[in-house]
Amino acid sequence: MRDARQSEHEEVRIVRGTRTGATITVAVYSTERGPAIGGCRIMSYPSWREGVRDALRLSEAMAMKSALAGLPYGGGKTVAVLPGGGLDTTRRLDLITDIAEVVAGFEGRYIAGPDIGSTPDDMALIHRLAQGNAFCRPEAEGGSGNSSAATARGVVAALIAGFHHRYGVSSIAGSKIGVIGLGHVGHLAAESLAREGARVIVTDIDSSLRADAERNGLEWATTDLLRDELDVLVPAATGGMLTRETASTCRAGLIVGPANNQLADDSVDALLHQRSVTWVPDMLAGAGGIIHAVSREKLGLDAERTNAVVGQIGDKVGQLLAYAQERHVTPLQAAREISSDTDSKVNA
Protein backbone atom coordinates (compact mmCIF):
# COMPACT_ATOMS: atom_id res chain seq x y z
CA MET A 1 0.00 0.00 0.00
CA ARG A 2 1.35 3.41 -0.97
CA ASP A 3 -0.56 6.61 -0.28
CA ALA A 4 -0.17 9.35 -2.92
CA ARG A 5 1.05 11.68 -0.17
CA GLN A 6 3.91 9.30 0.62
CA SER A 7 5.83 10.32 -2.50
CA GLU A 8 5.85 13.93 -1.21
CA HIS A 9 7.69 12.93 1.97
CA GLU A 10 11.42 12.62 2.43
CA GLU A 11 11.05 9.32 4.25
CA VAL A 12 8.30 7.13 5.67
CA ARG A 13 8.93 4.05 7.79
CA ILE A 14 6.13 1.61 8.61
CA VAL A 15 7.10 -1.18 10.98
CA ARG A 16 5.59 -3.67 13.39
CA GLY A 17 6.89 -3.20 16.90
CA THR A 18 9.15 -6.10 17.83
CA ARG A 19 7.58 -6.35 21.30
CA THR A 20 3.93 -5.49 20.71
CA GLY A 21 3.30 -6.08 17.01
CA ALA A 22 1.66 -2.63 16.83
CA THR A 23 1.94 -0.85 13.48
CA ILE A 24 4.17 2.19 13.97
CA THR A 25 4.59 4.83 11.28
CA VAL A 26 7.14 7.62 11.39
CA ALA A 27 6.66 10.06 8.52
CA VAL A 28 9.27 12.74 7.83
CA TYR A 29 7.85 15.33 5.47
CA SER A 30 10.81 17.69 5.31
CA THR A 31 14.16 18.43 6.93
CA GLU A 32 15.01 21.41 4.75
CA ARG A 33 14.70 23.84 7.67
CA GLY A 34 16.28 21.44 10.17
CA PRO A 35 15.43 18.13 11.88
CA ALA A 36 11.79 17.13 11.55
CA ILE A 37 9.73 17.53 14.72
CA GLY A 38 6.28 16.19 15.46
CA GLY A 39 4.18 14.48 18.08
CA CYS A 40 3.75 10.80 18.84
CA ARG A 41 0.10 9.80 18.44
CA ILE A 42 -1.05 6.54 20.03
CA MET A 43 -4.66 5.58 19.34
CA SER A 44 -7.00 3.12 17.68
CA TYR A 45 -7.85 3.39 13.98
CA PRO A 46 -10.22 1.42 11.75
CA SER A 47 -7.10 -0.10 10.18
CA TRP A 48 -3.34 0.33 10.21
CA ARG A 49 -3.64 1.97 6.79
CA GLU A 50 -5.70 4.78 8.32
CA GLY A 51 -2.92 5.29 10.84
CA VAL A 52 -0.40 5.63 8.02
CA ARG A 53 -2.61 8.17 6.23
CA ASP A 54 -2.95 10.18 9.43
CA ALA A 55 0.83 10.22 9.90
CA LEU A 56 1.28 11.51 6.35
CA ARG A 57 -1.29 14.28 6.76
CA LEU A 58 -0.03 15.31 10.17
CA SER A 59 3.65 15.39 9.20
CA GLU A 60 2.93 17.71 6.28
CA ALA A 61 0.93 19.98 8.57
CA MET A 62 3.78 19.91 11.08
CA ALA A 63 6.22 21.15 8.45
CA MET A 64 3.90 24.09 7.79
CA LYS A 65 3.52 24.68 11.54
CA SER A 66 7.29 24.92 12.01
CA ALA A 67 7.66 27.29 9.08
CA LEU A 68 4.75 29.54 10.09
CA ALA A 69 6.06 29.68 13.66
CA GLY A 70 9.52 30.62 12.38
CA LEU A 71 11.20 27.58 13.94
CA PRO A 72 14.41 26.08 12.47
CA TYR A 73 12.82 22.65 12.09
CA GLY A 74 10.99 20.55 9.55
CA GLY A 75 7.92 18.40 10.06
CA GLY A 76 7.33 14.78 11.00
CA LYS A 77 4.91 12.57 12.90
CA THR A 78 4.71 9.24 14.67
CA VAL A 79 1.48 7.24 14.70
CA ALA A 80 1.22 3.98 16.63
CA VAL A 81 -1.99 2.07 15.92
CA LEU A 82 -3.43 0.30 18.92
CA PRO A 83 -5.01 -3.12 18.39
CA GLY A 84 -8.79 -3.28 18.20
CA GLY A 85 -9.23 -4.15 21.86
CA GLY A 86 -6.63 -1.64 23.00
CA LEU A 87 -3.32 -2.43 24.63
CA ASP A 88 -3.01 -3.96 28.08
CA THR A 89 -1.59 -1.33 30.42
CA THR A 90 1.19 -3.73 31.37
CA ARG A 91 2.41 -3.59 27.76
CA ARG A 92 2.68 0.21 27.56
CA LEU A 93 6.39 0.22 28.36
CA ASP A 94 6.91 -2.25 25.52
CA LEU A 95 5.01 -0.01 23.10
CA ILE A 96 6.98 3.12 23.99
CA THR A 97 10.19 1.12 23.64
CA ASP A 98 9.06 -0.07 20.20
CA ILE A 99 8.39 3.55 19.22
CA ALA A 100 11.76 4.65 20.56
CA GLU A 101 13.50 2.06 18.38
CA VAL A 102 11.93 3.51 15.25
CA VAL A 103 12.72 7.09 16.29
CA ALA A 104 16.34 6.12 17.05
CA GLY A 105 16.69 4.75 13.53
CA PHE A 106 16.36 8.27 12.11
CA GLU A 107 19.60 9.26 13.87
CA GLY A 108 18.48 12.76 14.82
CA ARG A 109 16.61 13.66 11.63
CA TYR A 110 13.32 13.26 13.51
CA ILE A 111 12.55 14.42 17.06
CA ALA A 112 9.40 13.16 18.79
CA GLY A 113 7.04 15.00 21.13
CA PRO A 114 3.79 14.19 22.97
CA ASP A 115 0.45 14.03 21.21
CA ILE A 116 -2.83 12.19 21.69
CA GLY A 117 -2.11 9.07 23.75
CA SER A 118 1.45 9.98 24.79
CA THR A 119 2.88 11.93 27.73
CA PRO A 120 5.99 13.76 28.93
CA ASP A 121 6.96 10.59 30.83
CA ASP A 122 6.83 8.67 27.54
CA MET A 123 9.08 11.32 26.00
CA ALA A 124 11.56 10.82 28.84
CA LEU A 125 11.87 7.15 27.91
CA ILE A 126 12.16 7.90 24.19
CA HIS A 127 14.78 10.54 25.02
CA ARG A 128 16.86 7.93 26.87
CA LEU A 129 16.49 5.23 24.24
CA ALA A 130 16.70 7.38 21.09
CA GLN A 131 19.86 9.40 21.69
CA GLY A 132 18.01 12.41 23.11
CA ASN A 133 15.58 12.85 20.22
CA ALA A 134 12.43 13.76 22.13
CA PHE A 135 10.89 17.02 23.35
CA CYS A 136 8.72 17.80 26.38
CA ARG A 137 10.22 15.52 29.01
CA PRO A 138 9.18 16.35 32.59
CA GLU A 139 10.88 19.47 33.89
CA ALA A 140 12.49 17.43 36.67
CA GLU A 141 14.38 15.55 33.97
CA GLY A 142 15.55 18.64 32.14
CA GLY A 143 12.68 18.97 29.69
CA SER A 144 10.03 21.63 29.17
CA GLY A 145 7.21 19.55 30.65
CA ASN A 146 3.62 19.41 29.50
CA SER A 147 3.00 21.77 26.58
CA SER A 148 -0.81 21.93 26.95
CA ALA A 149 -0.84 25.28 28.74
CA ALA A 150 1.34 26.87 26.07
CA THR A 151 -0.82 25.41 23.30
CA ALA A 152 -3.94 26.82 24.97
CA ARG A 153 -2.25 30.19 25.41
CA GLY A 154 -1.46 30.28 21.71
CA VAL A 155 -5.02 29.34 20.79
CA VAL A 156 -6.39 32.23 22.83
CA ALA A 157 -3.92 34.65 21.20
CA ALA A 158 -4.91 33.32 17.76
CA LEU A 159 -8.61 33.61 18.59
CA ILE A 160 -8.37 37.20 19.78
CA ALA A 161 -6.43 38.15 16.63
CA GLY A 162 -8.94 36.33 14.44
CA PHE A 163 -11.80 38.01 16.30
CA HIS A 164 -10.29 41.43 15.63
CA HIS A 165 -9.91 40.60 11.92
CA ARG A 166 -13.41 39.17 11.59
CA TYR A 167 -15.40 41.59 13.75
CA GLY A 168 -13.18 44.66 14.00
CA VAL A 169 -12.89 44.61 17.80
CA SER A 170 -10.17 43.19 20.05
CA SER A 171 -12.20 42.34 23.14
CA ILE A 172 -14.10 39.04 23.12
CA ALA A 173 -16.15 40.05 26.18
CA GLY A 174 -19.80 39.24 25.61
CA SER A 175 -19.13 37.03 22.59
CA LYS A 176 -20.57 33.53 22.22
CA ILE A 177 -17.90 30.87 21.81
CA GLY A 178 -18.41 27.13 21.37
CA VAL A 179 -15.62 24.70 22.27
CA ILE A 180 -15.77 21.10 21.01
CA GLY A 181 -13.44 18.87 23.00
CA LEU A 182 -12.36 19.27 26.63
CA GLY A 183 -9.01 17.53 26.59
CA HIS A 184 -5.91 19.05 28.17
CA VAL A 185 -5.84 21.99 25.75
CA GLY A 186 -9.57 22.43 25.21
CA HIS A 187 -10.50 22.92 28.85
CA LEU A 188 -7.59 25.31 29.50
CA ALA A 189 -8.53 27.41 26.47
CA ALA A 190 -12.22 27.40 27.40
CA GLU A 191 -11.55 28.58 30.95
CA SER A 192 -9.21 31.28 29.70
CA LEU A 193 -11.81 32.54 27.22
CA ALA A 194 -14.42 32.65 29.99
CA ARG A 195 -12.05 34.76 32.10
CA GLU A 196 -11.85 37.17 29.16
CA GLY A 197 -15.60 37.70 29.53
CA ALA A 198 -16.89 35.46 26.76
CA ARG A 199 -19.91 33.20 27.11
CA VAL A 200 -18.28 29.82 26.57
CA ILE A 201 -20.38 26.77 25.67
CA VAL A 202 -18.58 23.42 25.67
CA THR A 203 -19.13 19.79 24.77
CA ASP A 204 -17.20 16.54 24.84
CA ILE A 205 -17.93 12.90 24.12
CA ASP A 206 -17.19 12.29 27.81
CA SER A 207 -20.29 13.69 29.52
CA SER A 208 -18.72 13.11 32.95
CA LEU A 209 -16.76 16.32 32.33
CA ARG A 210 -19.93 18.39 32.51
CA ALA A 211 -19.99 18.97 36.28
CA ASP A 212 -16.40 20.20 36.38
CA ALA A 213 -16.97 22.43 33.36
CA GLU A 214 -20.01 24.07 34.93
CA ARG A 215 -18.16 24.59 38.22
CA ASN A 216 -15.58 26.56 36.23
CA GLY A 217 -18.13 28.91 34.69
CA LEU A 218 -18.65 27.09 31.39
CA GLU A 219 -22.00 26.11 29.88
CA TRP A 220 -22.65 22.58 28.66
CA ALA A 221 -24.02 22.45 25.13
CA THR A 222 -27.58 21.28 24.60
CA THR A 223 -27.41 21.83 20.83
CA ASP A 224 -25.01 20.84 18.05
CA LEU A 225 -22.26 23.45 18.23
CA LEU A 226 -21.35 22.77 14.61
CA ARG A 227 -24.77 24.19 13.70
CA ASP A 228 -25.29 26.64 16.55
CA GLU A 229 -25.20 30.39 15.97
CA LEU A 230 -21.80 31.34 17.41
CA ASP A 231 -19.33 34.16 17.12
CA VAL A 232 -16.48 31.65 17.33
CA LEU A 233 -16.23 27.88 17.03
CA VAL A 234 -13.19 26.23 18.66
CA PRO A 235 -12.45 22.70 17.37
CA ALA A 236 -10.37 21.11 20.14
CA ALA A 237 -11.05 17.41 19.59
CA THR A 238 -9.63 15.08 16.94
CA GLY A 239 -9.21 16.03 13.29
CA GLY A 240 -11.58 15.89 10.33
CA MET A 241 -14.38 17.67 12.15
CA LEU A 242 -14.93 20.18 9.35
CA THR A 243 -16.38 18.26 6.43
CA ARG A 244 -18.21 19.71 3.45
CA GLU A 245 -21.46 18.86 5.22
CA THR A 246 -20.60 20.55 8.52
CA ALA A 247 -18.96 23.49 6.76
CA SER A 248 -22.10 24.08 4.69
CA THR A 249 -24.26 24.36 7.82
CA CYS A 250 -21.78 25.96 10.24
CA ARG A 251 -23.15 29.25 11.59
CA ALA A 252 -20.05 30.54 13.34
CA GLY A 253 -18.39 33.61 11.86
CA LEU A 254 -14.91 32.54 12.97
CA ILE A 255 -13.33 29.10 13.45
CA VAL A 256 -10.06 28.78 15.34
CA GLY A 257 -8.81 25.95 17.52
CA PRO A 258 -5.99 23.54 18.35
CA ALA A 259 -7.28 20.31 16.77
CA ASN A 260 -4.87 19.07 14.12
CA ASN A 261 -6.16 18.49 10.57
CA GLN A 262 -9.53 20.10 11.19
CA LEU A 263 -10.43 20.05 7.50
CA ALA A 264 -11.56 16.72 6.08
CA ASP A 265 -10.00 17.86 2.80
CA ASP A 266 -8.79 21.08 1.17
CA SER A 267 -12.15 21.76 -0.51
CA VAL A 268 -13.61 22.58 2.92
CA ASP A 269 -11.28 25.57 3.18
CA ALA A 270 -12.68 26.91 -0.09
CA LEU A 271 -16.27 26.26 1.01
CA LEU A 272 -15.80 28.13 4.30
CA HIS A 273 -14.23 31.00 2.38
CA GLN A 274 -17.16 31.13 -0.05
CA ARG A 275 -19.55 31.30 2.91
CA SER A 276 -17.54 34.16 4.49
CA VAL A 277 -16.56 32.04 7.48
CA THR A 278 -13.08 32.99 8.66
CA TRP A 279 -10.99 29.89 9.40
CA VAL A 280 -7.62 30.24 11.12
CA PRO A 281 -5.36 27.36 10.01
CA ASP A 282 -4.82 24.92 12.87
CA MET A 283 -1.12 24.59 12.11
CA LEU A 284 -0.69 28.18 13.30
CA ALA A 285 -3.39 28.38 15.97
CA GLY A 286 -2.05 25.25 17.67
CA ALA A 287 1.66 26.09 17.45
CA GLY A 288 2.06 27.23 21.05
CA GLY A 289 3.15 23.84 22.37
CA ILE A 290 6.02 23.29 19.98
CA ILE A 291 7.11 26.93 20.29
CA HIS A 292 7.21 26.41 24.06
CA ALA A 293 9.27 23.22 23.79
CA VAL A 294 11.79 24.63 21.32
CA SER A 295 12.12 27.93 23.17
CA ARG A 296 12.81 26.26 26.52
CA GLU A 297 14.81 23.21 25.45
CA LYS A 298 16.74 24.41 22.40
CA LEU A 299 16.84 28.20 22.58
CA GLY A 300 17.32 28.46 26.35
CA LEU A 301 14.61 31.07 26.90
CA ASP A 302 13.11 31.55 30.36
CA ALA A 303 9.38 31.19 31.05
CA GLU A 304 8.61 34.89 30.61
CA ARG A 305 10.38 35.18 27.25
CA THR A 306 8.88 31.90 26.08
CA ASN A 307 5.37 33.10 26.90
CA ALA A 308 6.05 36.26 24.93
CA VAL A 309 7.09 34.22 21.88
CA VAL A 310 3.94 32.09 22.17
CA GLY A 311 1.89 35.27 22.38
CA GLN A 312 3.30 36.36 19.01
CA ILE A 313 1.02 33.75 17.44
CA GLY A 314 -1.64 36.47 17.56
CA ASP A 315 0.49 38.77 15.42
CA LYS A 316 1.19 35.96 12.96
CA VAL A 317 -2.53 35.18 12.65
CA GLY A 318 -3.30 38.82 11.95
CA GLN A 319 -0.61 38.90 9.27
CA LEU A 320 -1.80 35.66 7.67
CA LEU A 321 -5.44 36.76 7.49
CA ALA A 322 -4.43 40.17 6.10
CA TYR A 323 -2.27 38.42 3.49
CA ALA A 324 -5.20 36.21 2.47
CA GLN A 325 -7.54 39.17 2.24
CA GLU A 326 -5.15 41.30 0.20
CA ARG A 327 -4.42 38.51 -2.29
CA HIS A 328 -7.97 37.15 -2.42
CA VAL A 329 -6.91 33.66 -1.40
CA THR A 330 -8.16 31.34 1.32
CA PRO A 331 -6.41 31.10 4.71
CA LEU A 332 -5.05 27.66 3.82
CA GLN A 333 -3.65 28.95 0.53
CA ALA A 334 -2.11 31.86 2.42
CA ALA A 335 -0.54 29.50 4.97
CA ARG A 336 1.00 27.42 2.21
CA GLU A 337 2.34 30.43 0.34
CA ILE A 338 3.81 32.01 3.47
CA SER A 339 5.40 28.77 4.67
CA SER A 340 6.80 28.04 1.20
CA ASP A 341 8.24 31.54 0.99
CA THR A 342 9.80 31.08 4.44
CA ASP A 343 11.34 27.78 3.32
CA SER A 344 12.76 29.37 0.16
CA LYS A 345 14.46 32.07 2.22
CA VAL A 346 15.97 29.42 4.48
CA ASN A 347 17.36 27.55 1.48
CA ALA A 348 18.54 30.62 -0.42
TrEMBL record:
Stated family: Belongs to the Glu/Leu/Phe/Val dehydrogenases family.
Source organism (scientific name): Amycolatopsis ultiminotia
Oxidoreductase as UniProt keyword: yes
InterPro entries cross-referenced by the UniProt entry: Ado_hCys_hydrolase_NAD-bd, Aminoacid_DH-like_N_sf, D-isomer_DH_CS1, Glu/Leu/Phe/Val/Trp_DH, Glu/Leu/Phe/Val/Trp_DH_C, Glu/Leu/Phe/Val/Trp_DH_dimer, Glu/Phe/Leu/Val/Trp_DH_bac/arc, NAD(P)-bd_dom_sf
PROSITE patterns according to UniProt: D_2_HYDROXYACID_DH_1
Gene3D superfamilies: Leucine Dehydrogenase, chain A, domain 1 (3.40.50.10860), NAD(P)-binding Rossmann-like Domain (3.40.50.720)
Protein name, UniProt field: Glu/Leu/Phe/Val dehydrogenase dimerization domain-containing protein
SUPFAM superfamilies: Aminoacid dehydrogenase-like, N-terminal domain, NAD(P)-binding Rossmann-fold domains
Alphabetized UniProt keyword annotations: NAD, Oxidoreductase
Chain ranges of the Glutamate/phenylalanine/leucine/valine/L-tryptophan dehydrogenase C-terminal domain: 145-345
Location of the S-adenosyl-L-homocysteine hydrolase NAD binding domain: 165-289
